[in-house]
Structure formats: structure tokens, C-alpha cells
Amino acid sequence: MQAIASTLRQLSREQALVRGGRALRVMNQVDGFDCPGCAWPEPRQRSFAEFCENGAKAVAAEATAKRCGPAFFAAHTVADLRSRTDYWLEQQGRLTHPLIRRAGANRFEPIGWDEAFARAAAALRGLPDPDQAAFYTSGRTSNEAAFLYQLMGRMLGTNNFPDCSNLCHESSGVGLKRTIGIGKGSVQLDDFEKADAIFVIGQNPGTNHPRMLSALQAARKRGAQIVAINPLREVGLESFIHPQQAFATLLGTASPIASLYLQPRVGSDVAVLKGMMKHVLAAERAAPGTVLDHAFLREHTVGLDALVADLDVTRWDRIEEECGLAEAEIARASDVYLRSGATIVTWAMGLTQHENAVDNVVAIADLLLLRGNLGRPGAGVCPVRGHSNVQGDRTVGIDHTPPAAFLDALEQAFGFAAPRGAGLDVVGAIRAMDEGGVRFFMSMGGNFLSASPDTEMTARGLERVGTRVFVLTKLNRSCLSTAGETMVWPCLGRTERDVQGGGEQMVTVEDSMSCVHSSRGTLAPASPHLRSEPAIVAGLACAVFGQESAVDWDALAADYDRIRDAIERVLPAFWGYNRRVREPGGFILRHSAAHREWSTESGRAQLVPVPLPEIRLRPGELRLFTIRSHDQYNTTIYGLDDRYRGIRGQRRVVLMHPDDLGERGIEPGAEVDVRSVSADGVERLAPRFRALEYDVPRGCCAAYFPEANVLVPIGSTARGSGTPSSKMVPVTVAQATSAWRVEGADERLVSTDGGFSTASADG
Ligand SMILES: Nc1nc2c(c(=O)[nH]1)N[C@H]1C(S)=C(S)[C@@H](COP(=O)(O)OP(=O)(O)OC[C@H]3O[C@@H](n4cnc5c(=O)[nH]c(N)nc54)[C@H](O)[C@@H]3O)O[C@H]1N2
Ligand SMILES: Nc1nc2c(c(=O)[nH]1)N[C@H]1C(S)=C(S)[C@@H](COP(=O)(O)OP(=O)(O)OC[C@H]3O[C@@H](n4cnc5c(=O)[nH]c(N)nc54)[C@H](O)[C@@H]3O)O[C@H]1N2
Ligand SMILES: [Mo]
Q: How far apart are CA 474 and CA 35, in angstroms?
């Protein structure tokens, strides 16, 4: 009931009860639009309301009646906007006009589309080297828009495609490619109906993938075991009331989800997983031939001997010391695994945002492969994606290190020489900006500044870029640089009708389980001046390449079927794209590992030993991990409550173990300053948080993203994937003494000594 109340509250706050309500009726239905929230797939049998509380909030945010137009920008200088919170900025509503803040000006003013495209094109053509341009993508962008976007960038001559995936599941892709030869999840929704055990590691589905709880609940009810591994006790993983049942009966009782909940120290999952693998080996030795899947290992894998040798020399005392769990506790998880005939492991950011994140993913694959839990019913790997089309964007070419075969096919289809060198990812782009190496930055959605690590450095880097272009639905902090020139190009959202020359258009997206399906908006656009993302890319590309372009951009943007035909020419997996995507529910891209085909160097699945993490902290330091609240979608803050965690009306909080508070002489609720010092000795400060007691392991603490991003050092990234380690930041927490105070209901951070922070979600 609280979820329903919260949904209605959000719809009414956005003055979107009618518009939003109309949208919700068709969300995730076969002919409707795809939820702009998470990438959890839709079941074959759709229910009357196939959405969750947080999907409804995402729709309310987009379908809002609030508008942020020329009058607003005439009334607010950029300096004024910079002093506001992310929360306030997004609350101003949907952008209505293309905008420009000219060099030297302190306000945005409207600009016509043609002039906007011409200015951006001139800036691009003026670059002495195409690698001075960088094109960011956030994962809401459709396959069609993403494909055109990468085509334009590559025709210009660069592979600089940093994208939100670099901050998100990049480590999953790298780890899975190394072991099973394909960087995507291998399971389908019906595997959840067949699994005997499901391990949910480093993921908070109650808030971030609520529809996944239905699958977990059903599995638990039919007797499957569900093991949660998470340093923080997430209420949403403990029990759940299915909202549709609650709605039908108006009461409904919570049913349990996790049958076992382990709370290891942050960053120590490899230790837990290696402990489990040691138990598997021990069980095999006690009853030879009955535990490992010998036939599978023989026929399909390489590396077993090296893995076994490594596990044998890994000592239990080191495992226990690292993760803070006793062997007996890990044994409970191992027993579930050993009794299970078919096992799925799901995970999200709790595993991918660590220096050893790729090792985390490799260790999961190792554990599953030992017992043949891949490519058969009810078993496999399930990295649960974040943004609703982040997986599809990568599939159609948003990739800073594209496979050669993709570039070959692109060249063939469009007759140009594609750039072959590695491009910049997010962290690489920030560094290049800081060194003055990026002169043009374009952002297809997203909030590059607030989502990136090391907020102060990212803000400084953005200032050094000459021309910035942001394609957005709402205003955010990324657009508020003061140097050079900034343009903001407002676009249609998922919920809105998209009419082009060729008539009403649909777009397509790929969910976490490789299902490609259509999405068609139904609402009237928030403003007549909005353009679709594909039309914006085509408009810019026409201005850049002019008449001599080998690609007919206008024709592509007029009818997205033509874009899909082009995708099919480049990517054979999309055969029959336009026909198959019109079948109810779309189609599934073939997953090699699910068919026990291994596109690895050895041609087999690879078992790879990984080392135990060695996290060295300085005296007094805690392991900080950054998390999402129940009232946010990434950098979009809907409200200041976090219902499941019992936190209300505030976000500047750090959740700590009672003994860690006591040891520092900090009373619960007291104001503290949080600091990190990176390897190079640079200190970073997140001032004025409130310290709260919470059920986290000793030595670990949690704070919300994006407020805590100021603390994440740029130099701390995952080996092999470059993802910032925003789940493992060594910090100190002490009574607040810094020259800042927090003001107002939206928690504005104000300097008390005239100092100015460019960043920190604050001004
Ligand atoms: N409503 C809503 N939905 C969303 C989003 C949103 O912001 N709001 N964001 C979307 C996006 S882009 C993404 S990527 C996903 C993110 O989905 P999640 O990954 O669930 O999001 P986080 O809040 O980052 O949660 C990470 C979880 O990992 C745990 N954790 C932290 N460190 C460790 C560790 O070292 N080991 C283990 N085992 N666990 C750890 C935390 O306690 C937390 O429960 O959600 C998507 N869906
Ligand atoms: N410390 C820390 N940092 C993190 C994370 C973390 O867990 N901890 N998580 C990381 C993860 S997993 C991710 S995915 C990134 C997210 O990084 P991003 O994807 O860059 O950020 P979002 O907050 O999702 O972007 C919100 C903006 O997108 C725009 N937008 C919304 N819908 C549309 C649309 O349909 N089209 C266009 N063009 N624009 C639209 C709106 O203007 C809005 O302001 O953040 C990362 N940063
Ligand atoms: Mo994400």
C-alpha cells in the first residue's frame, strides 16, 4: 500500500495523474512503450499492470506537466543554477526549446535547430584531429538512435564513445568474455522457474529491479533456495508483497525471499566465492565423481587443473580474515549450491564497481562451470543490467573498443574507412578533458558530471572542453559549465509519440536477457519543439557531412525501418529485424554460451583462477560503498526518502556500524565530514553528512550516489574494465568541522567561508 501511495504521490507531485496514468496503462505492454527504468525483461504473459513502483516514478518524471522553458532561463543565471541541487534542477520539468549559452554569457537563451546544428557542425569540422571529439551515451537511447550516433562519430573518424556502461556493467562484460566468450547473461526468465538455487550477489532488486522480486518470490514459493550475499541487509531481499496481489486483495502478506543472507565485508566477494569452490572440491574428494560435472568439464572447459591448484593453496584463515565470515557461514551457502541441480547467479553494481570487479565476475563463472551450470535449463549467469537499453546500445556499436568484425561490416555497408584505434571510455575521457585533449563533447542523455567519479575533476575537465552539446529531457548539472559554449538540445522521451516524415515511428531496445523488442510512445510530446534522438543525430550529421555524405541521413531519420535495415546489414544477428521485432514480444539474440558454444581463444569455456582481494586501509579508514535510495533513478532524485531502509527526508547520510561510530566518539545523527585520500596523496572532502547506525559489517559504511561521488578518486578503477571503484572507497569519518552548512528542504550545501564547490550535487 505504501508503494501505491508513493506512486500516486509522485504522479501528483509531477501534476501527471492523467498524462502519467494514461502512459502507465500501456507501459511494458506488447504494443506500448518499454519502461524507461531498469532492463529487467517482461514475462510472456503480461499482467494488467506490468510495472513497478519505481518504473511508475520514472514515467511520472517524464510525463510531468512541469516545463522548463525560455522564461525560466531568462530568470536564472548559470551561477544561480549551479548553486542548486540536482534534485531542484530536475524538478523544474521538461525542457521545451533548444538552448545555447554563448561564450562569455551567463544565461541560456533559445536557439533554432538549424543554427544549433550548424554551430556544432562548425565546431566539429574545425577540430584538427577527430579524436578531440568525444560522444557520451546514457543507456536509455534506443538501438536506432545509438546506431546512427556511432555511425556519425566513426565517419568523423573517432572511436571516442564513453558510455554509462563504463560506470556500470563493463566489468561483467569483460569477465564473462574471458570465461564464457560472450559478455551477456545466459539465462531467460523461464530459467527462474526451473532453478533449484538462485544467488543474488551485490544487488538490491527491491529498489532497482522490483519486477525481479516476482520471479524470486515465485521461485521461493515452489521451493527454490535464494541466497543473498550483500554487506548491507536489504529489506527488499528479505520479504516481499507482490503489488498486484496486494492490489487485488487490498491486504496481502509478505512472503520471504532470501532463505540465507550472508553479510561479508565490502569488496571481499572473491574470498566468499573461493571458499564456496573449496567446499565443492572437498565434497568431490569425499565422494569422487558425484559433485563436479566431469563430462562437461572434459568436453567444454580448459583450466581445471590450474583452478584446483590455486584453490588448494588458498588458506581458510586468509578467506575468513578477508571477508569477515566464518568458514561455517560460507559452508551454508556452499551446501545450498551443492544440493542444487540447477543454479543461477545474478549480480549488479555490488560486484562490478571494485578494483577487482572483473575477478568477481570470473569467480562466479568458475563456480558455475565446476558443476556444469551453464547452457542448460534453470542454470547460468545473470548480470542484471541497469538502464533499459544499455545492453542494446553496446550491441549496435556504442563501444570504445569495437570488435574488428563490426568495423569491417560498417565499412562495407557505408563505404568509408572506420577508425581502428581504441577510443576513450568515461575515465579516459575525463582525463583527456582535464589535459585539454577534448575540444568537443556531446552527450546523448545522461548526466556525465554527476554520474562520473571524482566530481571536482570531472567538472574541471568539462570546463576545458570548448563546445558541449547535451541531448536531454531535463536540465541537469552537466550543462552548467561557465567556460566555452554549451548547447542543450531537448528530445522526446520513451512515453511520447514520435512522428517523422514516414509517419509514426517505433524504436527498439534490448533487455537484460537479450530480448529485442519494440517501444512506441503514446503521449503528446512535452513541447512542439522537441525532436527525436535519431532526428537530432541525423540533423547534426547532415550539417557536418553536407551534400557529399555517402549516407542519406534524412531518409534514415524519416523512417526508422531503414535504420533497422542498416543495422541488419552490419550485424547478421539482427536478420529479419523489421519483421521479427513486430512479432509480439520481439525476438531473442542468440547467446552462444547458452548453446554451449564458446567464442574464447581456446574455443572452450575457460576456468581462470583469481587472487584473493588485498585491501589495505590506513589506520582509521572505513570501506565506503555508494548506493541508490528507493527515491532516485541514478542522478535523478525523486524525493529524499528511502522507505525500505527507514531513512526519511535526508540524503546526506553515511550508514555506519554502531561500534565504528562509538570508536570515533560520534553520536548517531551527528554531523560528520567524510574524506578520502587517494594513492597520490590528494584529499577529497564530502562535507556535512549525518552519521546513522545501520546493519553493515564493522569497518564498512554506505552513502548515496551521487552525493558521495566527490570522494571517488579518478585513479581507482577496476583492472581490465576501467570501471570506477565506487563500491570500495577508503574514507575517514570525523565530527564535522568543515566550512560548510546544509540548508533547506532540498539539502543545499552552502560554503561558510566564501569557498565554492563546482560539484558535489551541490553548487
Ligand atoms: N529505481 C531505480 N532503479 C534502478 C536504478 C535507480 O537508480 N533507481 N538504476 C539502474 C541502474 S543504471 C543500475 S546499474 C541498477 C543498479 O542496481 P544495484 O546494483 O542493485 O544498485 P546499487 O544501489 O548500486 O546497489 C548495489 C548493492 O550492492 C551491495 N554492495 C555494495 N558493495 C558490495 C560488495 O562489495 N559486495 C556485495 N556482495 N554487495 C555489495 C549494496 O549493499 C547494494 O545492495 O539499477 C537500475 N535500476
Ligand atoms: N558513486 C557512484 N557513481 C555511479 C554509480 C554508483 O553506483 N555509484 N552508478 C553508475 C551507473 S550504474 C550508471 S548507469 C551511471 C548513470 O549515468 P547516466 O546515465 O549518465 O545518468 P542518469 O542519471 O541516468 O541520467 C539522467 C539524465 O538523463 C536525461 N534523460 C532521461 N531520459 C532521457 C531520454 O530518453 N533521452 C535523453 N537524451 N536524455 C534523457 C535527463 O535529462 C536526466 O537528467 O552512473 C554511474 N555512477
Ligand atoms: Mo547502471
A: 18
38 lines ligand 1 (CB under 6 A): yes
Identity of residue 449: L
Residue nearest to atom 13 of ligand 1 (CA): 386
User: Does the pTM exceed 0.85?
Assistant: yes
- Ligand 2: which of 167, 495, 684, 716 to mutate, judged by most atoms within 8 Å of the beta carbon? 167
Does position 546 have pLDDT exceeding 70, yes or no? Answer: yes
Question: What mean pLDDT is reported for the chain?
Answer: 94
Going from the Cα of 163 to the center of ligand 2, the distance in angstroms, rounded, reads: 10
**What separation in angstroms does the CA of 383 have from each of 173, 602, 730?**
9, 24, 26
Per DSSP, what are the bridge partners of residue 642?
647
Nearest alpha-carbon partner for 271 in 608, 606, 614: 614
Q: Report in angstroms the alpha-carbon separations of 316 from 311, 331, 359.
A: 10, 12, 19
Distance between Cα 168 and ligand 3 center (Å): 4
- Is the C-beta atom of 476 inside 6 A of ligand 2? yes
The protein residue whose alpha carbon is closest to atom 17 in ligand 1 is 208
Calculate mean pLDDT across residues 224-245. 86
- Chain region(s) in the chain for CATH 3.40.228.10: 170-383
CA of 350 to the centre of ligand 1 (A): 6
In short, whether 162's Cβ falls inside 6 Å of ligand 2 is no
CATH 2.40.40.20 domain residues, the chain: 622-751
| Centroid of ligand 1 to alpha carbon of 204 (angstroms) | 5
Q: What is the largest CA-CA distance in the chain?
A: 76
For 362-376, the pLDDT digits (tens) are 999 999 999 999 999
Pairwise CA distance, residues 726 & 627, whole Å: 9
Atom of ligand 2 nearest to the CA of 444: 38
Cα(208) to centroid(ligand 3), Å: 10
- The verdict on the CB of residue 491 being under 6 Å from ligand 2 is yes
Chain position carrying cell 565485508: 265
Residue 446 near ligand 1, beta carbon < 6 Å: no
Measured CA distances, 654 to 267, 668, 707 (Å): 18, 10, 11
Nearest residue (by CA) to ligand 2, atom 36, is 445
Instruction: State the distance between the two ends of the chain, measured CA to CA, in whole angstroms.
Output: 36
pLDDT at 248 over 50: no
CATH of 622-751, one of 3.20.20.150, 2.40.40.20, 3.40.50.2000, 2.60.40.290: 2.40.40.20
68-167+389-495+525-579 topology per CATH: Rossmann fold (3.40.50)
| Any atom of ligand 2 within 6 Å of the Cβ of 473 | yes
Helix count (H) and strand count (E) of the chain?
A: 30, 32
Atom of ligand 1 at shortest distance to CA of 207? 1
Of the listed ligands, the closest to the CA of 633 is 1
Ion ligand 3: residues, CB < 5 A: 168, 386
The CATH fold of domain 170-383:
Dimethylsulfoxide Reductase; domain 2 (3.40.228)
Report the percent of the chain where pLDDT is more than 70.
Answer: 97
Could you tell me which residue, 161 or 7, shows the higher pLDDT?
161
Provide CATH 3.40.50.740 ranges for the chain: 68-167+389-495+525-579
Select from 430, 482, 423, 483 the least CA-distant residue to 458. 430
pLDDT digits (tens, 9 = 90+) for 378-433: 999 999 999 999 999 999 999 999 999 999 999 999 999 999 999 999 999 999 99
